[in-house]
Design a protein that fits this description.
Number of helices: 8
Bound molecules: FE2/S2 (inorganic) cluster
CATH topology of the largest domain: Glutaredoxin
CATH superfamily of the largest domain: Glutaredoxin
Strand order of the largest sheet: 2-1-3-4
Largest sheet: 4 strands, mixed
Structural class: alpha+beta
Helix content: 40-55%
Length: 177
């Protein structure tokens, strides 16, 4: 009996450490609700906002502290496209696939990025440098087609400019080391 209590305390401590005090406090607040499991998506959003993605240790910790079956937590995390299950790269590339950009060749830019990076949308390059994502209209249609890298807007991009843009960030990273 004592052993299982000790184990639960250990599991709780590990889970609290995995999520950090702010999220643990939020989960504690969720337990004031008559149906805390209904807050699962809100909790996962907070974890992703804090850590950038939902790792296996985060999901286990949410299951333990919110007292929701681990399979349900994993199912919800993988069902919704806005949850990321892997860490993002150092730079996040958003290719605008909105109508104005599409008409101006966004699909060719996307194809060049996919070929240069060896990854597809939603993935991160093996060196951890770039994550590739597709965006809806980024609000600067007059400059289509648009590629954003982090907060930098690259306007009227052509497929041949893609390696040049990538190289700029790679050279920056080399200069920082
Ligand atoms: S459609 Fe790309 S910025 Fe509007």
């Amino acid at each position: 009996m004592t052993a299982s209590t000790d184990n639960w305390e250990e599991v709780q401590a590990t889970s609290r450490e995995a999520l950090g005090p702010a999220i643990v406090e939020y989960i504690d607040e969720c337990h004031q609700d008559p149906a805390p499991a209904g807050k699962l998506i809100a909790v996962l959003h907070r974890v992703q906002a804090e850590y950038g993605y939902l790792g296996a240790a985060h999901l286990d910790a949410v299951a333990q502290l919110l007292r929701v079956p681990a399979a349900k937590v994993a199912g919800v995390a993988s069902f919704y496209h806005f949850f990321r299950l892997e860490p993002r790269g150092k730079h996040v590339i958003n290719v605008c696939m909105g109508t104005a950009c599409y008409v101006k060749g966004a699909d060719q830019i996307a194809a060049r990025l996919i070929s240069e990076l060896g990854i597809t949308f939603g993935e991160t390059s093996s060196d951890g440098m770039f994550s590739l994502e597709a965006a809806r209209c980024l609000g600067t249609c007059g400059l289509a087609p648009i590629v954003m890298v982090d907060d930098d807007v690259h306007a009227q991009v052509t497929p041949d400019q893609v390696p040049i843009i990538l190289d700029k960030y790679l050279r920056q990273a080399t200069a920082e080391t």
